[in-house]
Structures are given as structure tokens and as C-alpha cells.
Write a structure and sequence with these properties.
single chain; mainly beta; Complement Module, domain 1; 5 domains; 4-stranded antiparallel β-sheet; 3-stranded antiparallel β-sheet; 2 helices; elongated; signal
């Protein structure tokens, strides 16, 4: 032990020289740019050693040289080699859906979604692989389907489009109808929903209306005491000079009630004497209006006097259900020669 210690103390420079010689003029393992790799795992390389560089899987080499050499100075020669990620082709569009991606290079991802009412057949995502292809093909968005619409008793449905087979695509609708005297109760429209179910099916029910009452001063086309079916009609008319106001026909409605009935409006007499009126485009002496009556809604003009101008002018008034108001400007003249209708008109 003492001999070994003495040797170490006498020759320390020899050990130091050996260690230094082992690390002098050698190259350390090179630091390479991202995605570049090389063969071998050793830490030190002697001058003259060549290393072949390559790109990692999924990357393409550009620029040369693709070799580096350990120089006598202990450094590696330079290289411009770059490894660029491989690129996948642009994806095909997705019918009835959307696709989302930021790039198409190696390890990029595409996410697929289908529009409302459509389900995806295939993978919802794809990855750009090292060989420049997508991991999965573009999926298919297929419409949600419903069975044929349920049909209520005494009813039918008319689809919005021609139907083939025993299923209907999402969004397709139809209109229900019922065989007379049944009518649709509920929403007559139905649609295949996103859940693959039809909206609520209406019912077909019988609706009738009782015999309606007659109108004052009028008559109706039927007085048979029975129930009248939905959409069955009855007509009305008025007696004598009474005028029908409203629809001459009423109809049995879906709520079991008749539509609004008309009414009979009375004629009017013209309450003036010894004067002319303008009626239906003609001047008529009131005594010649036989009988003295105009019908409801008829318009009559009487003549008034503009005293400062000494001229006459016609003023309209209308018969409303037996009442015809004479304009306040009208005065019954004492002298027939001074009638406003017989002098110069203003």
C-alpha cells in the first residue's frame, strides 16, 4: 500500500497527461437540428470519422450534404440538411357536414362533424401519417330516418315528396287529411325529426253543427232540423227591399259552430219636399221618386245654397239601415225658382 501511494505521489503528471490525451482532438456527439437523426450511440468520435445523417420518419430531407466529418480540430463539418414534415393531400369535402383542420402536414389532425339530422358513418377524425396519407378515409354523413308516418283511423297523409321504400329522411314532412265527414283535430302538419320520430299525429273526428237560426226580415235555404256536417253550407236572403249585409252563405266550421251570419238592412225614405235630388247619376224631383225609398248603402245627393256666391252645390248622404240623414246645409225653399238645383252650380 505504501509503495502504491509513493508511486502516485512521484508521478501525478503521468496520470493527468493520459486523461487529457484521451479527450484531445476528438469530437463529441453532434447536436443536430430537430427531426434529424444519425446512426450510433457513442459519445466520442476520432478525427476522420463520417456520420451519415437522415430524417426521422414522417420527414423529408432537403439540402446537402447529408454527411458530417469529425475534423482534426475536434469539431464537425457543417451541413445545411433540413428535415421538413411530409404533407398529406387536401381532404375531400364532407357532404352534409363540416371538417376542421389547421394544416395537412405530418401529425396534423382533421375533425369531422355532420349537420343536424345526419349521423356519421366512419371515423370522426383522421391523422396525417408518416407516409403522407390520412389514417382514415373521409366519413359519410347519412340522414336520420323515420319509419313511414303513422296514419290515424279514417285519415291519410300526403308527403311533401315522393317516398321510396319504408323509411323517410329527416326533415321530410307531410299533411294529414281525413275522409269526410271526419276532420283533422290537432296539427295537420307532421315531420320526421332529428330523433328519428314523427311529430305528434292528429286525430280524425266527426264534426257537426246544429240547425242555425233564421235572420230577421230574411230567409234561409234550409230549415231541416238535423245535424249539418263540417263544411256544409246554408244560404240566406232578405225579404222585399231589405239588403243582405255580410256573406250570403254560412259554413259549418271545425269547432262545431257556424260562421258569422249576415243581416238584413232596411231601406230609407228621403225626407225632403219640393226639391231635386241626385240619385244614381240622375237629377230627380222628389215627387217622382216612387216609391220614396232608397236601399241600404245607396248614396243620395241633395242640393244646398251658397248664399254669398249665389250658387248651388250637391252634398252626399248615405242610407244606413233605414236612416238617411239630410245635410244641415239643406233648406226647403219657398220659391221653386230659387232651388239650389236650378241655379248656377258653384
Amino acid at each position: 500500500m505504501e509503495r502504491k501511494l509513493a508511486l502516485f505521489l512521484l508521478f501525478p503528471f503521468v496520470f493527468f497527461t493520459i486523461v487529457k490525451t484521451q479527450h484531445n482532438n476528438v469530437c463529441l456527439r453532434p447536436e443536430l437540428a430537430a427531426n434529424i437523426e444519425m446512426d450510433g450511440l457513442q459519445r466520442f468520435y476520432t478525427p476522420g470519422v463520417e456520420l451519415v445523417l437522415s430524417c426521422k420518419q414522417g420527414y423529408t430531407p432537403v439540402y446537402d450534404p447529408r454527411k458530417i466529418v469529425c475534423a482534426a480540430s475536434g469539431t464537425w463539418t457543417k451541413t445545411k440538411l433540413k428535415c421538413l414534415p411530409k404533407r398529406c393531400p387536401h381532404p375531400d369535402p364532407l357532404s352534409k357536414g363540416e371538417l376542421y383542420y389547421e394544416d395537412t402536414v405530418f401529425q396534423s389532425m382533421i375533425n369531422y362533424t355532420c349537420d343536424e339530422g345526419y349521423t356519421m358513418n366512419g371515423n370522426s377524425s383522421a391523422l396525417c401519417l408518416a407516409d403522407g396519407t390520412w389514417s382514415t378515409p373521409v366519413p359519410e354523413c347519412k340522414p336520420v330516418t323515420c319509419d313511414l308516418a303513422p296514419i290515424p283511423p279514417f285519415g291519410m297523409i300526403a308527403y311533401d315528396k315522393r317516398i321510396r321504400g319504408n323509411t323517410v329522411d329527416y326533415g321530410v314532412g307531410g299533411t294529414y287529411k281525413c275522409n269526410p265527414p271526419y276532420i283533422v283535430f290537432g296539427n295537420a302538419r307532421a315531420e320526421c325529426t332529428v330523433l328519428g320520430k314523427w311529430t305528434k299525429t292528429p286525430e280524425c273526428q266527426v264534426v257537426t253543427c246544429p240547425l242555425p237560426e233564421n235572420i230577421d226580415r230574411g230567409f234561409m235555404s234550409s230549415s231541416e232540423p238535423r245535424d249539418y256536417d263540417y263544411r256544409e253550407t246554408i244560404k240566406y236572403g232578405c225579404n222585399g227591399d231589405y239588403v243582405l249585409e255580410g256573406s250570403y252563405e254560412i259554413v259549418c266550421q271545425q269547432n262545431g259552430k257556424w260562421s258569422e251570419k249576415p243581416s238584413c238592412k232596411a231601406p230609407c225614405s228621403v225626407g225632403i219636399e219640393t226639391a231635386r235630388i241626385l240619385y244614381k247619376g240622375q237629377q230627380i224631383w222628389i215627387k217622382d221618386l216612387q216609391p220614396n225609398r232608397v236601399l241600404h248603402n245607396d248614396i243620395v245627393s241633395v242640393y244646398c245654397m251658397d248664399k254669398p256666391m249665389k250658387c248651388g252645390y250637391a252634398v252626399q248622404t248615405q242610407c244606413i239601415d233605414g236612416k238617411l240623414k239630410i245635410p244641415e246645409c239643406f233648406e226647403q225653399p219657398s220659391d221653386p225658382g230659387s232651388l239650389p238645383s236650378e241655379i248656377t252650380q258653384c
